[in-house]
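Homework help board

Subject: predicted structure for assignment chain

Our instructor gave us this sequence and asked us to write out the predicted structure in token form, then describe one feature. I got the tokens but I'm not sure how to describe them. Can anyone check?
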Amino acid sequence: MSRLATYRSHASAHLALGLPLIGSQLAQVAVQTTDTLMIGWYDVRALAALVLGTSVYILFFLFISGFAWAVTPLVAAAAEHDDEVRIRRVTRMGLWVSLGAGALCLPAFIWSKPLLVALGQDPDIAGMAQVYLRIAGFGILPGLAVMVLKGYLSALEKTRVQFRVTVGAALANVVFNYLLIFGSFGFPELGIRGAAIASLGVNLISAVWLAVYAIRTFPDHDLFRRLWRPDGEALREVSGMGWQIGLTTVAEVGLFNFSSIVMGWIGTIQLAAHGVALQIATIAFMVQLGLSNAATVRAGRAYGRRDRQGLTDGAVAVWLLGFGFAVVSLVIFLAVPETLIGLFIDPDDPLRGEILAIGATLLAMAALFQFVDSAQVLAISILRGMQDTRQPLIVAAISYWLIGAPTTYVFGIVLGWEGVGVWLGLVLGLACAAVFLQLRFWRLTRYVDPEGARYA
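My token output:
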């Protein structure tokens, strides 16, 4: 088989696995967007509280999700050897550590107002955020169960169900929000409490749906048999990988949060334009994120059978796919920037013209941003499939916080390049991560061999 045909075969396999995951990621964005829109229609102060509350929730959720993401490569490698016992052990301990860590977060949600006030937030808004978190915060438990089950099913190449579940959740969220926020069809008008109940309900439904599917599809795995029994070895393995993955994710998300703070120092209009451009870039990034999830599974399976050639060919193929999607994003961002920005701005807003002008410039930077973001997320996901998480954490810390954050501040504030400088700093940090992570990948592949030798 020619090299081109080999890459085409790997690309087809990645797309077959990744397209439902891409759809799932886009549907998840739709859930978050509908929450923001519907609460925004209800009350502006409630919207501010929702943004504040979800910021706290997401910070904890993303870190703990690292334990769920650790399940994927471990199950993928075990599946290559038809080791049903190991599949059950790592998935079960993934549930243990995820739900345990989620339970430890509950006091921070229940008594979040003092924490938010201490961070300088308006007491009234902080109080409303606490009302939201005291209900929605309990949704972190079924939400984390969903993440573990998605990781388990992805590793077994069952991704279409994830798309169906997430689309179902998005539709249910709209219905629940409409009924409970606004008090439609005789339901009580609960405002932000209604949004919290809707979020909790959607997470519960999704968790039950995936659990029932897993039991029916893989009865031989007996996934929930003796769920209460500890498994020290598997628990240590999932925990060891999970906290490193979680911190890596938080490091990247923290860089973007820092960029928003810097834009706020520059000006309100610049911050608004930055927020819109970042939202558009995030939607495009969901394609890369779904593809990266597929890359983790494919790399995990190749690594499980110690297939060096399959590992490298698959990596090249998925990087080419990511590059292709980035080109599509670049063309769209450069062709119709004002149209895209305008979707998020009230036509009657007196500041619309300024926001469109600044946003169009930032969207041009976001077009460049797509290439480096694609390269780094795919690289880190392939390494995750190879069960390499410690070095990527170090790379992330250096790239995002010793390079990305300082240059964001220097370019944006010190040199006075404002928004363009902030985004240039983001691009530089992500580019460094992409280069370092790809070098790490090519170094490690030298130590993958059929005899089972493993890198240090």
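Reply (TA_rk): Your tokens look well-formed. For the description, you could write something like this. The chain has two domains: 16-230, 243-456. That's the kind of observation they're looking for.
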